[in-house]
Fold these 2 entries.
Entry 1:
Amino acid sequence: MLVDTHAHLETVDDLEGVLENAKDAGVSKIITIGTSIKASKKCVQIAEQRRTGTQIYATVGIHPKDGKGEVEKLGLARCIDTLKQIVRSSKKVVGIGECGLDYRVTNDNLQLTTDKEKDFQRELFKEQIKLAAQLKLPLVIHCRNAWNEIFSLLTTNYRLRTKIGGVFHSWTGDWQTAKRVLDLGFYISFSGIVTFKNAKEIQEVAKKMPVEKMLVETDSPYLSPEPWRGKINEPKNVKIVAEFITILRSLSLDQIAQVTSENAERLFGFENL
Ligand SMILES: [Zn+2]
């Protein structure tokens, strides 16, 4: 049985059909990930409604890009307070996120994200790190072109650092970066990107890292794995991601499924509801 640790089910039209496909592919649990207050509320609703078949859990958080309108409208403090209320409203909430930093750079590494925008993203992320520590929930981290800043925000405060854990989702870093994540005790989650032909560095990480820190996900409806790259993605395709990793690790699909499911259980502490 597989756990898709990162999907965006609130974007799906035919949810019943998609969940049926997931069940047929051996997906026992799906975590649907919040990206804004509005999306987080919907994620919790979807998780609460579902009672049979594939179990659904939710995370609550504000993505560095998606929640901007809400934060500008309500103010950061009120947004964080609302997230806290949503977490407390349901036992199906298993994490905070996705949150983090998303910087745009050109192919020649020129920064396109303004300093003002970076400040905004950093504040928003910092508040969600604190929230995760306070509520003792794991963080689901999104990182694009901002590794050093993410690490410094996670480690600046010792008191905080000892209390937080989580996962770097849809891994895109190299082995050196992965070692820093593992040193922090965080998990690494692979999406369909690991199957791409030009993803050699990412595949190296999947090959070398301790399997006890590995998770798998789809990030559906985005990031379909090969050979479906560019098509709409579904949680059932987490099986393709896991199958690809079996080749890198010389483990069977059952072994990868079992260990990544145990890891997800340990990190997110799913309650049987
Ligand atoms: Zn996502």
Entry 2:
Amino acid sequence: MAICPQCPDQVDSSEEDTMKVYSPLTLEKLARQRLLREEALAISALKDLPNILFPVMFEEAFTNGHTKVLTAMIPVWPYPYLSVGRMIKNLNLETLKAVLEGLDILIAQKVRSSRCKLREIIWRNRYHDVFGICTRSYGGLPRFMTQKQPVQNSPGCGVKKEFKVTTQLELMMGRLDESATYLLQWAQQRKDSIHLCCRKLKIQGLAKATVIEIFNVLHADCVRDLELLRLRIEDLAFLNPYLRQLNNLLHLTLNHITDTLSDSEISQLPTFQCLKSISVTTVSFICGNLKRFFRCLKKPLDSLSITDCVLSQSDLDFLPYCLNIFELKSLKLAYISLCYLHLEPLRFFLDRVGHSLEYLELKTCGIQDSQINILLPAISQCFHLRAVSFCDNDFSLLFLKELLHHTAQLSQLEREIYPAPLECYERGVIHTHRLENFCPELLDILRAKRKPKEVTFETTRCSKCTGYYIYDLETQSCIFEI
Ligand SMILES: [Zn+2]
Ligand SMILES: [Zn+2]
């Protein structure tokens, strides 16, 4: 806990909000807007519209709510994909209905326009998080597909229908939003020709009827990414049989699950055959149960992130013996108090993953001088590390220097974050001039061995305003950040 020197009379600087960048409308844009005002004219002009203008015209019609134009554009869409980014304005039930109406026309047509290449509509999908309208699919799938060929699915999707609509489904407070509800029902009624592909499923709060409805329509094999948020024990028990169907799940996120689970309840959690990453934030049952929880791993894990949980000594002791974790590329332990634990098991663990680890974050773990000393030999052997963060731990200047002597050996490092040494704080106040004095010498330790790219030293956050200071390699001075 510390307070920054400028906190008492911190001025609210909201000037930036009032600054706006104005760009003049191009003539082409004006022409498009004018055309769209005359919807009938716009629709009849589609046949002469060059392919390259389809995405901009679609975006214009979308953001301005010209739904009739949207509907008319679908049956002549000249690309295999139509991606509607999450951030686009007017992403609502009306625009969704207009797009699906266009797809209905396409499904019903006996003879299709030779121009139409549309195979897949990607609606608000995390796996393709573009800003506007895009004509490519994520992951470099083939751009050209001939008509009447079933959609080429990415591995594991396995469903071949004439058209595919890809989306993510989010159950918030137990409910789907009105667009998702509509899409689900629409796809259910057109099962023969539409594959509704859901890559990401997020469940926050539970309504049993909605879960049943979702799993009636979606193909469980398509789901790659599952996030379970704020669920109770009984919710998990209800979900288990459904989650067991998610055979191709790659990423599991558990967030704010604060009920404690009994041993048998934990062992009833589903196992996922091909899980690649686990992220756990504020989950109570992890404490003392890491071993039981990791039983779900069947293939080597790429990424493990544990944030804001309590870990017991037995959890740490288990880590180096956990199977299927030795090809880990990313390890994050953050907001976990490690200061009262023996860190030797963590050192053995780092020894074992040293050949594969590319990202290591030990942030806000309260790690002390003597503890980092234990980890140093292992850290200096992680030769593939590209990014490290040790910020917000309690290192004195002496041990911070030791750490830097070890990370200086790691030639692949591109980004490094270190805590400001304890000497930068006195009576709970951050002394930035001290940080400014220490940092050149600290950077020299790295420079003696290699050319560092991005290095920052960060102070702890101010307990009043949550601001903090960083000193970085580029500016070579202390900057206040919020
Ligand atoms: Zn402050
Ligand atoms: Zn699918």
